[in-house]
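pinging the channel bc i need a second pair of eyes. not urgent but kinda urgent?? the chain im working w is below, pasted from the shared doc
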Amino acid sequence: TPLSEITVCEPTEEALEAIDQLLWEILWEPVGLPRNVRQRFKLPGSEVIFVAMHRKQLVGTVVGQSQNEREMELRHLAVRPDMQGNGVGRGLVAKLVEYSLNHGYISISTHARNTSQTFFEKHGFQPVPGETLTHPVFDNPRINFLFMRRLLKQRDTLPIALLQPQRVSALVTVLYARNRPPASVFEPSLHRLSRL
């Protein structure tokens, strides 16, 4: 199926039940979780949902939720098995990235199953060391997750190699004050700079 035949858009109100069904069939039924498991995963606040349609049929969906004013979380991503490998997942992630950029987010995070790590890395997500997801529903069967993040905006920077070491601290202060990234995003950069 050519990607040009896939439409990624916001769902209609009538599509919400079909979205829940697709998420269950793809993500949770194969590991023996109950049909209503999505309700157990819901967090307070509103979700943003996009769907992939092919010939008026739902073939994929992505669900995002704001974690704070700077970070969107990709909560769920599901594509029908017969449509996988056709760019549907790529299109859904791209739509969530576009939405997030247009609404001022600087990053998207996700708790990716270990089987999805390669997909997310191809789409700009990087593992965040030391962060894991635990939830009793995933203890049996055991499902492993990896916390990953994709930065959406490049901050204004000067080539670090051109700076004198004493000026690096001043640059970090200016960049932090201007952009105010979440601490967990910026700390690795500070660690790298401190080794100069």
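so Residues 88-102 form the longest helix (15 residues). and Strands lie at 6-9, 47-54, 57-66, 71-79, 107-113, 126-127, 145-151. — does that match what u expected or am i reading it wrong
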